[in-house]
Amino acid sequence: MSSDDPALEQGETGDETKQFLVKCESCSFERSTDGREEATRLGNVHHRETGHEIVAVEVPPSVDPEPE
After folding, report:
1. Sign of the C-alpha dihedral, residues 14, 16, 17, 23?
2. Domain of life, per the record (predicted)?
3. CA-to-CA separations, 42 to 20, 25, 55, 56, 65, in angstroms, rounded
């Protein structure tokens, strides 16, 4: 299978450039971040510290996330 994106051909998923909004369902915690791994890390840290459940949503490229 061929792709027009050279990064994808090298085995990268492209998730590193995607924007995510990580938000807590139980408190005011909310962060925007680049990449799925960083979103997961932020969510795991918050969950460990508080026991709260978090949600990470991919932000479409046409939507600018709020500044931190």
Report:
1. positive
2. Archaea
3. 11, 14, 11, 10, 16
| Model-wide pTM > 0.70 | no
Domain boundaries of the chain, sorted by first residue: 12-59
Comparing C-alpha atoms, which of 2, 42, 3, 51 is closest to residue 19?
42
pLDDT tens digits along 20-53: 999 999 999 999 999 999 999 999 999 999 999 9
> For residues 54 and 29, is the Cβ–Cβ distance under 8 A?
yes
